Sequence to fold (185 residues):
Amino acid sequence: MEREKAFELLQEYVKNEKLIAHCLASEAVLRALAERLGEDPEKWGLAGLLHDLDVEMTNADPAVHALESAKILEQKGLDPEIVEAIKLHNEEAAHGQQRHKTFHHALAAGETITGLITATALVYPDKKVESVKPKSITKRMKEKAFAASVNRDTIMECEKIGIPLPEFVETSLNAMKKIGPQIGL
Fold:
């Protein structure tokens, strides 16, 4: 599936602009991770872009979120590896399946870190991701009450793909900075 068609599909299923911005941020982070790890940025970018395709239709219910996305994307003929990574980004709905590939861990950690980066940017006076420093993100990782819904254990899966947290934060933050205006940050 071409990126343009994927974005149209996302807009068909997701209407909330903040959720679309999250998907765009996830796409940027996944592309950056793919480049860093010598993987396919197009493939990983599509996973980031489409990972929350069903979030509104399932009301983000952890028991089913990602399963509807997988069905839709399978019907559209999307690469099975992308579908599998999307399904496993929410292990709770994956019926006992666990993330076991670099791609799976990268999507889970990459899409999760976007929430922490966004929350950090929003406490800055200008509310711009451009102003955020990597050390601010790593500091916020330790503050469990800050952006409490962001799962720090999932972010730490960056270590399972061979990227230490400080480098993962910097890579992710730089990816989001490149699209800051596009995502309203």
